[in-house]
Amino acid sequence: MRRIMKDDTMSTTHTKRSITERAASRSFLFVTLLATLLATLFATACGGSSGMGDQEAATAGTSAGGEAEGAEEEASGDYGPGADSGGMIVQPLGPDQQGILDGYDDDALALVQELGGTLELSAPDCGRAGELRDAICDLADRICDIADEHPEHTDVTGKCDDGQTHCETARQNVEDRCD
Predict the structure, then answer these.
(1) What digits encode the pLDDT tens for the residues 35-53?
(2) Fewest beta carbons within 10 Å, which of 38, 64, 75, 127?
(3) What is the pTM of this model?
């Protein structure tokens, strides 16, 4: 009986040690991965200065077959400064423009949903509906202004088209219910 208890104690101790070692190994792996990620982000944020000029950097990503090494980035529409897209240099958006673009989907959806709820009332609040219509159209105008300045950003052009559709629909819906 003592031998069994002793074996159980050793087994439990071994299991606890094994779990502790695995946890430490996972923690080390996590910290290493996090450090690598932060170093990569820092290098990217600092421009990844490699001593190459803009033109050299733009052509350095091309393999012997003429294919861009960053093809996955181009396919996703994620273009960095100076990325080559069909012979056109893609200029980065300004911080204000990027902020408008980043928040567009959520902002447009919230405005369209609120307008829909306002107009569904048996006695719609036409003053609020007009404000929401104007906000939807203003957001569309801002996105389209960015698209006009940066036609090489096809994602912005697509959002401009969506915004114009939302604006026209909002105008028609408010006119139908309130005028």
Answers:
(1) 454 444 444 444 444 444 4
(2) 64
(3) 0.48
